[in-house]
Amino acid sequence: MAFVNQPKQHTYDLVLVGSSFASGFFLYEYLKTAPENASILVLERGNRNPHQWQLENQKNSDIDWFNTYIHEGLSHKDWMFTIGFGGSSNCWTGCCPRQLENDFRMKSKYGVGRDWPISYADLEPFYAEVENFMGMSGTDEWSMTPRSTKYPLPPHRLTDPEAALMDHYKGFYYPQSTARPSRTFKNRPRCCASGICRLCPIDSVFTIQNSMMDIFEDPRVDVITGAHVDRLETNNNVVTGAVYKKDGKEITVKGELFGLGANGIFNPYIMQKSGFEHEFLGRRIHEQVSTWAGFDLKGMKNYQGSTIITGQGFMWYDGDHRKEYGACMTEFNNKIRKLRVEKDRWNERMYIQFVVEDLPLDENRVIYDPKLDKPIVSFTKFSDYGMRGLEKVFDYADELAGVLPVERIFFDEKFEKKRIPRSTEAHIQGSVVMGDDPTTSVVDGNLVHHTHRNLLVLGSSSFPTGAPANPTLTLSALSVRAAYKLRT
Ligand SMILES: Cc1cc2nc3c(=O)[nH]c(=O)nc-3n(C[C@H](O)[C@H](O)[C@H](O)COP(=O)(O)OP(=O)(O)OC[C@H]3O[C@@H](n4cnc5c(N)ncnc54)[C@H](O)[C@@H]3O)c2cc1C
Q: Ligand 1 pocket, 91 CB below 6 A?
């Protein structure tokens, strides 16, 4: 049925909130075995702004994300996302590394954070499924974790400095796994490497709008945009309905099964507003801490790569140091920033981003205040563990300068002088934590709410800890697994 203005029926088999990766990949798996007469409703707060609209208007949405929550705590900490059909798939960069095996068992392996209720092996087939569907570019040389499949597309071309890094850090430096195709994949052209990725000029990166419309336009699915879900209705530990606002009216729709895919700010907010109570609901919101360093090179040219983030380094990622300080992953930025001014040396410069895991803190949280019409995101501090990990960037940069012909290193001044990390990695994690123990977690390892068993809370809000790896591949794989687990 696809896009409709109002519900076509009184009760749906499945009601999903949000229309981005978390809901999209759940729907993808759910529809595989749903009967012909199944009925699914997707409620999306934002409007559908097609790619052409986004290019013409030079923005991803007609709703300003920064006005949708109240910022409290650290003034330099932001959260970033897109409100609209397809969510942040409209603006994301597409970096898609898998998490490593130890990312799922931080407590038992390193004595910090929490273990996930599932292992890498549990998620591996679903990683493979999502990579194939998204048309991921990556290398078959990858040896950081076991893989059951090859990447559907070959890796992107690295820059010259990275070729040297790959040679030096054998087995720890790889071309980026990315949802930006290295050659044409279905309807999506090869990445143009122009670096203007939030508004991909050629619609190359995977988005819900360019790759999942078959799923959202399936005859069993109704999608209502401009439908701002306010709360869920419950009765005796069963979710019975979703209440949303559209065009000034409040509408209730009934359902058998519900999935929240509204991201790590709005999932806990909707739940709190619906009367859900749990010590950890809304708490532990976190993401990676990061900063960057620039390197002026001597006689080595840069920027030959074929996409925006060309390579990822795992040389400071896993190991016993994680007992003391956060793991670090490097991202090599092939997007041209400030060029050098010296004649014929404009491209003898490179920028590397250092992305460090931060341990979730209970005090950082999403708060529902009945007097306000939006969530408060109160983020008071990064963990000492994360900040100790970020402090290592000075050593890491020195080490790189021993590997490559570097004549000058320079850092982000905010970090160098005041230890202020980048304001956001745009990864919202941890506010509806998953776990086996209902007293310390809100959902189980299949993302089903511990007491309201017909409610799934999808997305990276469930992450017990936040590895350096970007979260979207993992959260998408979790969604596929959650739908699969419903029927097995
Ligand atoms: C600029 C940018 C770059 C990024 N780059 C990367 C990257 O390279 N790699 C990576 O792994 N991740 C990246 N991310 C993060 C990635 O986009 C998110 O992890 C991912 O989009 C989360 O998917 P989601 O479905 O959980 O939530 P979202 O994409 O945030 O979607 C949530 C959806 O719910 C809707 N919604 C919210 N509230 C309501 C409500 N009350 N009622 C109805 N609908 C509602 C929203 O409109 C939206 O459609 C990036 C993010 C940004 C902003």
A: yes
Residue 32 domain-assigned? yes
Distance CA 25, CA 50 (A): 20
Q: Fill in the DSSP letter of residue 464.
A: S
| HSE-CB of 392 using CA atoms within 13 angstroms | 25
Minimum CA distance residue for ligand 1 atom 50: 92
CA distance 396 to 314: 12
Ligand 1 contact, 265 CB (< 6 A): no
Q: Tell me if 24 CB under 6 Å of ligand 1.
A: no
Looking at the domain assignment, is residue 442 inside a domain?
yes
Taking CA 360 as the corner, what is the angle to CA 107 and CA 121, rounded to the nearest 5 degrees? 45
Q: Which amino acid is it at 83?
A: I
Distance from the CA of 26 to the center of ligand 1, in angstroms? 14
Number of domains in the chain: 1
Q: pLDDT digit string (tens) for 333-372?
A: 999 888 999 999 999 999 999 999 999 999 999 999 999 9
Ligand 1 atom having least distance to the Cα of 21: 25
User: Which of 432, 444, 436, 438 lies closest to 486 in space, CA to CA?
Assistant: 444
**How do beta strands 2-3 and 221-224 pair?**
parallel
∠367-372-373 over CA atoms, to 5°? Answer: 100
Which range of residues forms the domain containing residue 243?
1-50+81-134+207-287+428-488
Q: Is 431 in the pocket of ligand 1 (CB under 6 A)?
A: no
DSSP 292-303: EEEEEESS----
pLDDT tens, residue by residue, 202-254 = 999 999 999 999 999 999 999 999 999 999 999 999 999 999 999 999 999 99
Ligand 1 atom closest to 20 (CA): 25
Which residue's C-alpha comes closest to atom 28 of ligand 1?
87
* Sheet containing strand 406-411, strands side by side: 173-175, 309-316, 328-333, 349-356, 289-297, 406-411
Tokens, residue 233 = 């209705």
Of 20, 42, 377, 423, the one to substitute when testing ligand 1's pocket (max ligand atoms within 8 A of C-beta) is 20
**Ligand 1 centre from 89 Cα, in Å?**
6
Instruction: Say which amino acid occupies 363.
Output: E
Name the residue at shortest CA distance from atom 46 of ligand 1. Answer: 83
Q: Calculate mean pLDDT across residues 177-181.
A: 98
In a domain, 202, yes or no: no
pLDDT in tens, 391-425: 999 999 999 999 999 999 999 999 999 999 999 99
Is residue 1 over pLDDT 80? no
Identify whether the C-beta of residue 211 lies closer than 8 Å to the C-beta of residue 188.
Answer: yes
- For the domain that residue 459 is a member of, what is the CATH number? 3.50.50.60
